[in-house]
Specification:
- It is globular, with a radius of gyration of 20 Å.
- The chain is built from twelve helices and 15 strands.
- The chain is about 40% helix and about 20% strand.
- The protein starts with 20 loop residues before the first strand and ends with a helix.
- It is of the alpha/beta class and about 350 residues long.
- Strand 14 and strand 15 form a beta hairpin.
């Protein structure tokens, strides 16, 4: 498999050109499936036409792949867009919304935008304990949002606990399972929770093609829920929000499972390598089932900052986690073998000094 060189890219489009290795954004280090690239290139011939309004072909492919009713699937320009629709539809002024303390930062933004009250719950060694969620429920709780696996933690909640959470939550509360990294987690006790949608009225599972499938630049997210919830969200989605290239390349990427498995296995090998090497340096790494790790510095914020500055000076971008109230931690995305090795060499060089 040929690997494209990493593209310098940052959330605000302001990443300085000196960064030759970007391990900050949880992107795939590998290009998309060759079949997805070919399908994307074919759409050039019909860019004068609008895309399908409901992403019908992509929904059909996703339905067949996962054994789902495609009428209960919606697609959007990334999971973040779907999460914003959920917030607009189901969070009102003064509503309490429970989410992990170290959960995806976008949850807090969406809650605040709707006038809701953020209710973060603690972790046990960066793993969510569903009892803490259940204990946080009040008569003002409208939504529970749980990223599983978690970002930036890289940990996951076993499926038996997820099933218990839904069973013990009051039935009127909407449970949002954000499974953006589900494709990386192949542990026996993990499941994204799609089957819960068919068992309960108030469950929505969100997924993405940005991570394992390498389509971050096209922005393709999808969700599975009841027809009532999906129809509600569709009323908020606006116009043709998923482009024709995104729909077509997304369908081709999802169908190329062999390539996806190869990328997943390479990422897991990279995670194992980074974890072992960093722990050998005396650093604390939270075990991860995702395509990134969370690294903690025993000497605190200054050690993290100085290390991060050294990495930047050597052309390597990683992700400080101060915004998550983790001032002595970094999030490092797995890269290609060469990128991982360059990162480890830089770490050894700095710590050796």
């Amino acid at each position: 498999m040929k690997h494209s060189p990493p593209q310098p890219q940052a959330p605000a489009g302001m990443m300085p050109p000196k960064f030759r290795i970007n391990l900050a954004l949880n992107e795939s280090p590998y290009p998309p499936s060759p079949k997805a690239i070919e399908a994307y290139q074919e759409t050039v011939k019909v860019l004068n036409r609008y895309p399908n309004y409901t992403s019908a072909e992509l929904r059909l492919v996703l339905g067949e792949k996962y054994g789902l009713d495609d009428r209960k699937i919606m697609c959007a320009a990334g999971t973040e867009q779907i999460l914003s629709y959920i917030a607009r539809a189901y969070i009102g002024e003064g509503d309490e919304v429970i989410h992990p303390k170290y959960g995806f930062m976008v949850y807090r933004f969406n809650i605040a935008m709707q006038g809701g009250i953020s209710v973060p719950v603690e972790h046990d060694d960066f793993i969510i304990n569903v009892d803490y969620i259940l204990d946080a429920v009040t008569d003002k709780t409208s939504v529970v949002i749980l990223d599983n696996p978690g970002n930036p933690t890289g940990t996951y909640v076993p499926y038996d606990d997820i099933k218990r959470l839904r069973a013990e939550l009051p039935q009127h509360i909407l449970l949002v399972l954000d499974a953006a990294y589900a494709e990386f987690a192949y542990e026996d006790d993990y499941d994204a929770g799609l089957e819960l949608v068919d068992k309960y009225e108030n469950v929505i599972v969100t997924r993405t093609l940005s991570k394992l499938y390498g389509l971050s630049g096209l922005r393709v997210g999808w969700a599975y829920s009841t027809e009532e919830i999906i129809n509600t969200l569709l009323h908020l989605k606006g116009g043709f929000n998923v482009s024709k290239p995104a729909q077509t390349a997304g369908a081709a990427a999802v169908l190329d499972q062999e390539y996806a498995d190869e990328c997943r296995d390479k990422c897991r090998a990279g995670i194992d390598y980074l974890t072992a090497e960093l722990r050998a340096m005396g650093l604390n790494v939270t075990s991860s089932v995702c395509n990134f790790i969370m690294l903690h510095f025993p000497d605190g914020r200054d050690q993290m900052k100085n290390t991060n500055d050294y990495l930047k000076d050597n052309g390597i971008m990683v992700g400080p986690l101060g915004a998550y109230d983790l001032p002595a931690s970094l999030r490092i995305t797995v890269g290609t073998d060469a990128e991982n090795q360059a990162f480890i060499r830089a770490m050894k060089d700095y710590l050796g000094k």
